[in-house]
Write a structure and sequence with these properties.
3-stranded antiparallel beta sheet, alpha+beta, 2 domains, about 200 residues, Jelly Rolls, about 25% strand, about 30% helix, 434 Repressor (Amino-terminal Domain), 6-stranded antiparallel beta sheet
């Protein structure tokens, strides 16, 4: 391989690393609901510099790593992506990397299916037999489909017994509740237009 080819390859590798780091910084920022201006101010850097880092157009300098990590409340090593790690944290969530969401009610667990910054909140909702919520409401709209088992859904005072394959949609401002009235675990793919912090059950 010619010297020029080696230099080109080294430059491409460096650019790829910058892009991976930029994606990681952006994902962490969006996960914390911080704007570019917010994070730049906390880290003591310009908005333009942060924007270039996130777009992979500028390398993350040593003097910037520490204040940026502190502003994001992570260890500096968290900003450096593993070269073998798929650069998919902005648009994809791997099955083994789902984040659990806080749940107040007994017998229910929720895992976040959507990546940071997504306009929709997708959840895997698991309801054990007898598990359920009290009636609650919040902003937004929602849609869901029962992928396993059955669930009793109550929307605006009306009860619906939904089984595997059944789906639903309604305004989240309507009082709603759900309970597993079957004998096996119920699993629901649930999509909401509100943020994860706004869709926690009140049971």
């Amino acid at each position: 391989m010619q010297v020029e080819d080696l230099m080109d390859q080294a430059e491409r590798d460096g650019n790829d690393a910058d892009i991976r780091v930029g994606r990681r910084v952006r994902a962490l920022r969006l996960e914390r609901n911080l704007s570019l201006a917010d994070l730049a101010s906390r880290a003591g850097i310009s908005i333009g510099a942060l924007s270039q880092i996130e777009r992979g157009m500028s390398s993350l300098r040593v003097r910037v790593i520490w204040p940026l990590a502190a502003a994001l409340d992570v260890e500096p090593s968290a900003l450096i992506s593993d070269p073998d790690e798929p650069a998919s944290d902005l648009y994809c969530v791997r099955a083994g990397n789902r984040k659990p969401l806080p749940v107040h009610s007994e017998g229910i667990s929720k895992d976040l299916l959507t990546p940071p910054g997504a306009a929709l909140t997708g959840m895997q909702v698991n309801v054990e037999p007898g598990g359920g919520t009290a009636a609650y409401s919040h902003t937004g709209h929602e849609f869901g489909i029962v992928s396993k088992g059955e669930v009793e859904l109550v929307v605006d005072g009306t009860k619906y017994l939904l089984k595997t394959g059944d789906s639903f949609a309604f305004k989240s401002t309507l009082l709603h509740a759900f309970r597993n009235v079957g004998t096996e675990r119920c699993e629901i793919i649930w999509v909401n237009t509100a943020k994860p912090s706004e869709v926690r059950d009140d049971g």
